[in-house]
Amino acid sequence: MRTLVARLDNDGDVLLAGPAVRAAAHAGEVVLLCGHSGAQAAELLPGVQRVVRWDCPWIAYPPPDVRTPDIEGIVALLKGIRADVALVLTSYHQSPLPLALLLKLAGVPKVVARSTDYPGSLLDVRLRADPDIPEAERALQVARAAGFELPPGDDGRPAITDPPEPDEIGPYVVVHPGASVAARAWSPDRCAQAVTALAEAGHRVLVTGGPNETELTRHVAGAHGVDLGGRTTFAELAGL
User: Fold this and answer.
1) Are 23 and 150 in contact (CB under 8 A)?
2) What pLDDT is attached to residue 25?
3) What would the pLDDT profile of 9-42 be if each residue is shown by its tens digit?
4) CA 216 to CA 225: how far, in whole Å?
5) HEC-encoded secondary structure of 124-137
6) CATH superfamily of 2-145
């Protein structure tokens, strides 16, 4: 059994696809299709045998132009994977149907995804979209609809291969104030209030961010959190 798992977003989205990937990997080989903005995370996921990178015109930003040779090329690439089933993982506001069409043109016999829109013959198993389901559970439900289950003892949480060990910091809560789309993020002041409230409740709070977010993490951490902005590798950040 060879399963193609597609998650064409950023690293954070790909990390949350991990439980679905592990469920599919429990039944056989997994090939992960992602954009270049998700490739770091893809390489860290347990159960992935191969990572295929493709920046698609309807999700990548800035979007590449739609060109006939490029579309023919990805269809040929997908055909060469020879997947038995494809899981198209999306956020609630995205449609799986453009990729489902390419997968069908590539001859994939079974395509499974969530879709608000009528899929016609593009999906073999369709789940209704639900914006209230957390991303990791949303993806895992797609895998289960395809007939996959997590292996015994797997708690279904996001995980990476060989996570770094925290430096004896004990239990902690992570606050990650940044987002790839600013409209999806809390305001810095609201994040800072959350850090203060968590610290006053007795939690050790780690504030994380990339190298270009150090001013943000410094403000959010304030006097109550540990500012790790720009101080971790991506693998360390994912491990936290």
Assistant:
1) yes
2) 98
3) 999 999 999 999 999 999 999 999 999 999 999 9
4) 13
5) CEEECCCCCCCHHH
6) Glycogen Phosphorylase B; (3.40.50.2000)
